[in-house]
Amino acid sequence: MRRIIVLLLLPILLLGCGDRRSGDVVDIAIIGDPAELGASGLRLGPVGQHVRTARAQGLVRLDETGQVVPAIAERWIVTDDGTSYIFRIREFDLPGGERLTARAVRNSLRDTIERLRGTSMGLDFGKLRDIRAMAGRVVEIRLKSPMPELLQLLAQPEMGLAVGEAPIGPMIAVPEDGAVRLAAMSPEARGLPRQPGWEEMVRTVRLSAVSAQAAVRGFADGRYDVVLGGTLSDFALAEAGPLSRGTIRLNSTIGLFGLDIRGQNGFLATPENREMLSMALDRTALIQPFNIAGWNAATTIVPDAISSNGQAGDDRWAGQTIEQRRERARAAVTAWARENGELVLRIALPDGPGSDILLRGLAAQWGEIGVRLVRITGDGVRSAGSDAAVDLVLRERVARFGGALWFLNQFNCTVTRGVCSEDVDFLVDLANNAPDPAESESYMAEAETALEALYPFIPIGAPIRWSMVRADVEGFAENPWALHPLFPLSRAPI
What positions does the domain Solute-binding protein family occupy (predicted)? Predict the structure, then answer.
């Protein structure tokens, strides 16, 4: 019992003495809603995801580079057919006195996945067959068909384990004046061997959720060592801010950055007309004002590198110049306007200078084919009162894992408010349940082809995620998922 009390109090003691040693606290500002610092449940924004990752690890977790590393599971194996993942967990006493067992882990995973039903992430577990607690310290996850991305999915913040009220770690959080202070739990409190001198190595992390303007200003004033959660809408603030040179860090992400088709009447009622809007865009020119090196444009929903059907996005309008594409689009818009009047589309964009720049580019390019844009303030849905008042809505979402399944599930009819197809959803379901990998891949390719032909989304390119980091900060790295775990920023070696 004495050991339990000491392990429980150690992080609190660290939190209490954090400011008494120079450099003992790293102050982080994350752009977002302060209410998310204490968010519970499974529908988390970026702020809630970062806090959840620190407070509740899963079987595996992501390190600062975005790689899957052991967490509660100390190791695992995958069967030759790819349908069974067998994890050996670290079975130990939690600070609250409860035992972290294979059965407790299984129950937590089952409960979380059940609660994810009705979300796109719940759909991502469509290949799951069963979760079993085996003898001793072993948990087995069985799949209907192989899913190489399973470990990446299990490492998501929402998959952090919950066993009663006991903290799972790797950090303990304490609210503080609108912020959260997080201290790394000692190795022995997490079922790892004691490491001499560990306490002297680590530092406390203090996380504040603020507006983009406050984050950039606070970084310039020296209040924050790191700024996280930047998007395209607020990128211009960072680029123009003091001390920006050498401190802006861009993630090379994959995901969805483009415009959802919300209006399904009038010109937008047919896939052919929706294609006209997509083909008229010069995507590189849209992003050129942001001066972002290495950014990747996209004309398809699923990136070429992970596409199931092997069709390169660059070949979508092969052999046609942007002028020729716009000539085709202009003819379609002119024909429609002759019968219906001027084509006016209502677009919803987040507030921010980056959105203003994007809007100007879209308005200019589509203006060349006869389309006039009207902006709906903010995200469009709240301000307009109903989806019917919005035709196009910006979607800028980073992928959870690098598989075509994630992209297809974003447009499933049970979760999207835009254009969708139950036939596509049915093909994805067939792919999930097909035991033969070749058959599963065939269904996925068919689903992808059908979704692309539907034009439910106008792709622009890779999502833009930026951070600001001081040169002396350790434990930060760019990664494809734009999720920056707080534990490495504590300098904890294990």
Answer: 67-412
Environment class of 430 (CB within 10 Å of its CB; exposed 0-12, middle 13-18, buried 19+): middle
In Å, how far are 185, 196, 413 from 494, measured between CA atoms?
10, 12, 43
Average pLDDT over residues 392-418: 96
Distance of CA 320 to the CA centre of its chain: 34
d(CA 202, CA 493): 8
Distance CA 179, CA 182 (A): 10
pLDDT at 380: 39
Encoded tokens for 48: 């809630």
**Could you give phi then psi for residue 272, rounded to 5 degrees?**
-65, -40
Predicted confidence (pLDDT) at residue 126 exceeds the cutoff of 90: yes
User: CA-to-CA distance for 450 and 153, rounded, in angstroms?
Assistant: 25
My answer on whether omega of the bond before 175 falls inside 30° of 0, hence cis, is: no
pTM of the model: 0.90
Place of tokens 């595996």: 60
Sign of CA dihedral 408, 414, 418, 419: positive
Q: What's the Cα-to-Cα distance from 476 to each of 69, 131, 165, 207, 470, rounded to whole Å?
A: 16, 34, 30, 15, 10
Query: Would 1 be classed as within a structural domain?
Result: no
Residues 149 and 189 in one domain: no
Match 């046609």 to its residue by tokens. Answer: 320
Domain-located, residue 440: yes
Residue linked to tokens 């010069």: 282
Which residue range is the domain that position 104 belongs to? 57-167
Q: How many CB atoms neighbour CB 112 within 10 A?
A: 20
* C-beta separation of 144 from 435 below 8 A: yes
**Residues 418, 329 share a domain:** yes
| Beta-bridge mates of residue 78 | 85
427-470 pLDDT per residue, tens:
999 999 998 999 999 999 999 999 999 999 999 999 999 999 99
Q: State the Cα–Cα distance between residues 40 and 173, nearest whole angstrom.
A: 13
Are 298 and 344 contacting, i.e. CB atoms less than 8 angstroms apart?
no
For residue 68, give the H/E element and its range.
Answer: strand 68-70
Query: Which sign does the torsion angle of CA 106, 109, 110, 111 carry?
Result: positive
| Torsional class of 310: left (φ above 0), alpha (ψ -120 to 50), beta (otherwise) | left
